[in-house]
Write a structure and sequence with these properties.
Aldehyde Dehydrogenase, Chain A, domain 2, 3 domains, alpha/beta, homodimer, Thiol Ester Dehydrase, Chain A, seven-stranded mixed sheet
Chain lengths: 681, 681
């Protein structure tokens, strides 16, 4: 049998070794072998750092986002090839789409986040400028810079496409090269993904390497032995492997970032209001069956513990049994099959062993762990297993500790809200939980009570059911991971996952220094005032610090009264002297805040047609000193941040606006947001 | 000699054991002993979880912030007692203030952050609502909830007051009980701090426990053995101890959060522009001497590697020698002494050993490691050491790897910007670095080049010098920690340090469910419209969802022309039909954005005097659809978040404002911020 090739140091390498076999989950036939003999692991890490990292960091966030989008498009074009191979992992077409399309969706989500939320140039800033001194000469800004190492991505066997892409996307966007290590049983599918990624020719050399086999090569050593302070490891898999990898001496000696996402004993909680006949009861049953059967229950987020009010336990068991009876197990490509095989025979044995332990505290109420009727395949040669529903006692330790990583869940009755919150915690940390209820008070108590133990919690009810993505689906915008048994890690979560690949540093200095370093004008820095109004400058010519000063303009009583009449804003503080005098902040009549910003616009605007296309918003407007009659207002508007849009003829300009009164006291501070045309547009 | 008492399970306990001795750093006399024999570590952890945690979580962020403030006040009143004991650790009065006042400052900073930035009730929300569906029935919100375990805080000997308070403040504000473990050499000073905290009677029972000795008690076991998924460990100390603790089998088995802050080979970089005679040259020399001598150089942030342009190396060495010659070493309470003792004789031996290793790659150019003239004390009995300046080669491995944790630094010449960035990285991860230059371009290159290796970077120049807090001072608002050798951890950083004590969870559901769970009105949720205008309601009576709908109001050409004339905002898009037609977003003349929000205010305001006191700002205003002539505007204003201020007669109300046109298309979305009086005010 042929050994899968690895893509390392810019080329495909096929080890000359016997390797470990991979089998077709449906037929049991050997598909190929895995080996990394002869691969120099130190060189692989070094190549990522020396070639991939600099190439990625050479690109902007927006450029990297564009490449992710292009890659997503390429994979979408070739997804049928991935679906075809998926079937050999035991996956139905639905399962394959979940895996393949889900992975492509993560690439697209990160592409979009990168373009929308990350800066066109300069470092990514975390939070606002931090004032550190009274005189304003000393302040700080937190910045994110990409780690200068490699991201070693150790994947699980259950999502051979989504898993690697979910780890690759944030790393790539951050500017950190990836080394993809697939899990043995389904490595042949991840190899197909790697083949497509390389064949696309889209990504810079060294940005992605693929190790089709163990991280330890008899001749090349252990990759972990070669990791350094700027590398990171993100692991998905079993809690026991996570534990072993986490304590690798090199990781602890060099404080290498390690994040783990381990399967966990996730729970789904039925609310007491959701009695039979309610939409929530049906949603609960339907979701439980889905979670048991999608990917044959091989999902680290799947429901293992189904907590239901004691009074409803019989009804839930009955309803779930009824649905499970409709499940057709078999060859995933055979007509009518709704649940495929487990990833392999070893995995099936493991599930059966776990089921035996579970049966200490629970009884089987549906399915036979030892046999199942199979459509279109041989039940013994393929890794087929019946869905198995158990019913257990809340006091059983096994129910809360033993995970059967297959189409298996246990219904557990609970007596009170307090009890079910405690039962959820007995899972010792979960990736995902769900509460199915139409009662907001119950949802609030359970969600806030169980949140410390969960990375994600879903409240499912009749309102969101139709659009809900369900208990088991991690979303790129949301954190994926959980405390304790779930690994203690966090992935994705939108930009949070990008930040996990970067170093956050506090940079202290004078305003001018921070402006120079961040590329964003920092209040207190030098302003550039010239004869040319900055609204006359195209995006390319505008520089942070370009400033226009307008005013002074006197605000009269007549102005205020007129504005009140014109807009209808007759709030007492503007018109009623007696009431205004009693106001704790004003003491006398004052101008409208909206009048102040309207006058300010009149003072800073350069009216003739030009590169400024629109004012699309205002941020962080604060009224700081009341404007009294006959106060004279001066506005200073300074270009703060200039963000070209890659695929548009314009970009965004964020202006710092400061209005002061005749005493120089700040009246209003805000950011004005405009769209400004590029020069050649 | 007496054994120090621990404060555990709500009472002071004095172990009946011989214990480990602590010595006066100045005289060498024994001060007392440390032991934890007989203390049941499982019970200590359990007490924190069972008594301290629930008591803390019962309080709001604002209440916990008030307690931190009160504690700061109490400690400030008693700070002379802490100064007095500090002298016995070898600290000068200046050192003691750095430690004691710095620690009190951290408490105050967190008190202020808690009141200003954290919600008055409900969970702390992370980021915005995340839309997850087209129809808007399914969305998500990340929330932070406090971990339900204990924070085990393992402190270093160099900051016996600041260290524990820097760890306590964010934990306490998060709602997580602390177990304080002092470092042996200076535990007697931390014990004094613990005595004051307990004597203050301010903090809830179980919120702070103090273990005056080892975490392993011969009869009580190892505290780490009893940690669980919801606990966390924050360690400050040596890199080697960090490595050992990090791999504790219970920590890895249960994915207990572990953060380490280890001393590191921090560098300070002199810019090529900063030649002798420039203010930056003098600042560099002055700062280096300060960092070498404050706390006798026992600061994990102190400068160990002084990188200077090769051409300036002689001049820097000469200038630093000159300043070091003025340092007076001795009994910290003796007249004229400017540098005290190291924490103990063991520490001095350790520094001398490190100096021997350093001398492989560097030569001593100031000071004698073996002897020093001492004022007011015995040079051999007290842990005194001369400041030692070395001059080393950039190629010397020892210079980048060996840390002498005392008044020791090495001047290293560099040839180019690229080289100095690489040299900085050879420290393998640092807490703090500094660049002393007046050249913004050099600062930018060096800061962004070295940021991946640093938790904090200071740019020092003539502008910020006067207000700068200096290279070695961690600030509560800024992250403290660094990658690799510096431990890979992160502490403080303002609210970031609070988040490190909480679980971040993504909560998915319908808008109404998310509103109920977060206590904040989520767009898409039910609105409450009654005959009573919400501006008539006092803060106590207002509820998220309370809504007023105003309009429709037609916007006419005359309105726009009048507004342009009145405000002076004659931007072409409002007045010039031809130019507006050419605008890519408008195609015809449109109304001013400021006119839209002014009219909107006219539509939602209830003008009569009442509980609404002021509109203090607007957030996230976005203009979404241009307003054309004769469009009719309707505004919907909904109370979104209601935040009483603890010590004021009013609170803040954040309103969701949405303006739509006659087609129902969104014209503008924003948050209106008002101050609203409490009922009994």
């Amino acid at each position: 049998m042929s050994v899968l090739s690895s893509h390392v140091l810019g080329e495909w390498v096929t080890p000359d070794a016997e390797g470990r076999p991979m089998s077709d989950a449906v037929t049991g036939e050997e598909i190929g072998r895995l080996a990394t003999e002869g691969i120099d692991m130190a060189a692989v890490a070094g190549y990522g750092r020396r070639v991939g990292g600099p190439a990625l960091r050479e690109l902007s966030f927006h450029q990297r986002a564009s490449l992710l989008k292009a890659l997503a498009g390429y994979l979408r074009e070739h997804r049928e090839e991935l679906y075809a191979v998926s079937a050999r992992t035991g996956a139905t077409t639905g399962d394959a789409k979940f895996d393949v399309d889900g992975g492509i969706g993560v690439l697209l989500a990160y592409a979009s986040l990168g373009k929308r939320e990350l800066p066109a140039s300069g470092p990514w800033l975390d939070g606002d400028v931090v004032p550190l001194s009274k005189g304003g000469t000393f302040l700080a800004q937190h910045v994110y810079t990409p780690l200068q190492g490699v991201a070693v991505q150790v994947n699980a066997y259950n999502f051979p496409v989504w898993g690697p892409l979910e780890k690759l996307a944030p790393a790539f966007l951050a500017g950190v090269p990836s080394i993809i290590k697939p899990a043995t049983p389904t490595a042949f599918l991840t190899a197909e993904l790697a083949r497509l990624i390389v064949a696309s020719g889209l990504l810079p050399d060294g940005a992605v390497q693929f190790l089709a086999g163990s991280l330890t090569s008899s001749s090349g050593g252990d990759l972990f032995d070669h990791l350094t302070e700027q590398d990171l490891v993100s692991f998905t898999g079993s809690a026991s492997t996570a534990r072993r990898l986490r304590t690798h001496p090199v990781l602890s000696a060099r404080a290498v970032r390690f994040t783990a996402e381990a399967d966990s004993l996730n729970c789904s909680i039925l609310g007491p209001d959701a009695t039979p006949g309610t939409p929530e009861f049906d949603l609960y049953v339907g979701q439980l069956v889905t979670e048991m059967t999608v990917k044959a229950g091989q999902k680290c987020t799947a429901i293992r513990r189904a907590f239901v009010p004691a009074a409803q336990a019989d009804a839930v068991v009955e309803a779930v049994r009824e649905e499970l009876a409709k499940v057709i197990v078999g060859d995933p490509v055979a007509e009518g099959v709704t649940m495929g095989a487990l990833a392999g025979l070893e995995q099936r044995e493991e599930v059966r062993r776990s089921l035996k332990s579970l049966m200490d505290g629970a009884e089987v109420v549906f399915g036979d762990p030892e046999q199942v009727e199979v459509t279109g395949a041989d039940a013994q040669r393929g890794a087929f297993l019946s869905p198995v529903l158990l019913r257990g006692s809340p006091d059983s330790a096994a129910v809360h500790e033993v995970e059967a990583f297959g189409p298996v869940a246990t219904v557990v009755p609970y007596a009170s809200t307090g009890e079910v919150v405690e039962l959820a915690a007995r899972g010792q940390g979960s990736l995902a939980g769900s509460v199915v209820t139409a009662d907001p008070e119950f949802a609030r108590e359970v969600v806030l009570g169980t949140a410390p133990w969960h990375g994600r919690l879903l409240v499912l009810d009749r309102t969101d059911a139709k659009e809900s993505t369900g208990h088991g689906s991690p979303m790129p915008q949301l954190v994926h991971g959980g405390p304790g048994r779930a690994g203690g890690g966090e992935e994705m979560g939108g930009l949070r996952g990008v930040a996990h690949h970067m170093q956050r540093s506090a940079v202290q200095g004078s305003p001018d220094m921070l402006s120079a370093i961040t590329g964003r004008w920092v209040p207190g820095s030098a302003r550039t005032v010239t004869d040319e109004h900055p609204f006359r400058k195209h995006l390319d010519d505008l520089r942070p610090g370009d400033t226009v000063v307008g005013g002074p303009r006197r605000v009269t009583e007549a102005d205020v009264e007129h504005f009140a009449e014109f807009t209808g804003d007759t709030f007492y503080a503007h018109l009623d002297a007696e009431a205004a005098a009693a106001n704790p902040f004003f003491g006398e009549r004052v101008a409208h805040g909206y009048l102040v910003v309207s006058f300010a616009a009149g003072l800073f605007v350069d009216p003739a047609p030009g590169p400024v296309l629109a004012n699309f918003g205002v941020d962080n407007l604060r009224f700081l000193t009341p404007v009294r009659f006959d106060d004279e207002l001066t506005i200073t508007l300074t270009a703060k941040q200039i963000s070209p849009r890659a695929s548009a003829a314009y970009g965004e300009v964020r202006w710092d606006a400061e209005v002061v009164n005749g005493d120089g006291a700040p009246v209003a501070k805000y950011d004005v947001l405009t769209l400004v045309a590029k020069r050649d547009a």
